[in-house]
Amino acid sequence: MIKWPNRTYGLAQTDMINDNLFVLLEKGSLVVPRPVAGLVRDFFGLDNLKQPPIKNTQALVPVIVMPDEIIVPKSKAKMVDAWLRSRGFILPIPRNDLFRVKNISPI
């Protein structure tokens, strides 16, 4: 999970609704947005989505993310994406549908 940098949480410090952190991610990894990050965290657990740091910089791409999003490594991205799709979430979530979900099945 992307953590808030020290002393940046709050409207006076950070834009809390837009992507605002520059990171390097593995090509093929999945960024789970805040509206559904809790579902992924509760179902898979954050420890199950961890991987060792990637040392090959050729495998990394620059991405802008926001705190409280979850990064899923490439090795587990298809599994998590399929799980989200089975519950009615298709990534990327259109901005106008962030808090409206259709056809949610129970976990």
Account of the protein in words:
With 107 residues, this protein is an alpha+beta fold. The chain has a domain at 21-88. It contains 2 helices and 4 strands. It is globular, with a radius of gyration of 14 Å. The chain starts with 20 loop residues before the first strand and ends in a 21-residue tail after the last helix.
Write the layout of secondary structure elements.
Blueprint: E1 21-26, E2 30-32, H1 34-44, E3 60-65, E4 70-72, H2 74-86
Antiparallel strand pairs: 1-3, 2-4
Features:
single chain; about 110 residues; alpha+beta; two-stranded antiparallel sheet; two-stranded antiparallel ribbon; about 20% helix; about 15% strand; globular
Quick structural summary:
With 107 residues, the protein is of the alpha+beta class. It is 22% helix and 17% strand.
Please state the CA-atom Rg, rounded to the nearest Å.
14 Å
Structural class assignment: alpha+beta
Main beta-sheet strand count, sense and barrel state: 2 strands, antiparallel
Helix content class: 10-25%
Q: How many strands in all?
A: 4
Order of helices and strands: EEHEEH
What is the chains' assembly state? single chain
Low-confidence residue ranges:
none
Give the overall shape, derived from the CA principal axes: globular
- Number of alpha- plus pi-helical segments: 2
Mean pLDDT: 78
Could you give the distance between the termini? 21 Å
Q: Could you give the order of strands across the largest sheet?
A: 1-3
Q: Bin the strand percentage.
A: 15-25%
